[in-house]
Amino acid sequence: MSASYNGLDVFGYQFDRFAYEHPWIGEQIGEFMLGPAGGGVLEYTNATVFALPEGGAHEVHGAILEWYNAHGGPYGPLGYPICDEKPTPTGYGRYNLFENGAVGWLPESGAFPIGGSSTAVTDESVEEVDVVSVISEPQTRMSA
């Protein structure tokens, strides 16, 4: 390590590791951008990777990324992603979890909000949806 440490190097290491572990995201096509609350954002060919202020990096891609960016991205009410995009338990759709909610995707309907505060997304262009799950503080399991 060099004598002159740059705090932004931490992001470089996070993004390099993420790209190494997830080669499908493709080549870096954007420049590093600082995000809110000290996080970071870096665009790749097939996904955008978000580094959380407290560490860790997660990707968002496709229609979910388009919806997320249209509603403020990490600056919006959902905050940063807290997981990579995943298939639903049935394997029919996909979803991403965020600090304050979730966005799902189904082939016939596209991307849509599926959780969080009922006031989290207030864009008039979004149809009203029932809250089907709520992301809240993790609960500690009680041992038997």
Helix content: 10-25%
Radius of gyration, in angstroms, nearest whole number = 16 Å
Measured between the Cα atoms of the first and last residue, the distance is 47 Å
Can you list the strand order of the major beta sheet?
1-2-3-4
The secondary structure category is alpha+beta
Shape: globular
Uncertain parts: 1-6, 118-144
What's the main sheet like? 4 strands, antiparallel
Q: What are the secondary-structure elements, in order, as H or E? A: HEEEEHEEEE
Mean pLDDT: 79
How much strand? 15-25%
How many β-strands, per DSSP?
8
Instruction: Tally the helices.
Output: 2
**How many domains is the backbone divided into?**
1
Describe this structure in words.
This protein is α+β, with helices and mostly antiparallel strands. 15% of the residues lie in helices and 24% in strands. It has two helices and eight strands. It has helices spanning 9-21, 62-70, and strands spanning 33-34, 40-43, 48-51, 57-60, 86-87, 94-98, 101-106, 110-116. The strands form two sheets. It has a four-stranded antiparallel β-sheet with strand order 1-2-3-4. Residues 1-6 and 118-144 have low confidence and may be disordered.
Task: Describe the secondary structure blueprint for this structure.
Blueprint: H1 9-21, E1 33-34, E2 40-43, E3 48-51, E4 57-60, H2 62-70, E5 86-87, E6 94-98, E7 101-106, E8 110-116
Antiparallel strand pairs: 1-2, 2-3, 3-4, 5-6, 6-7, 7-8
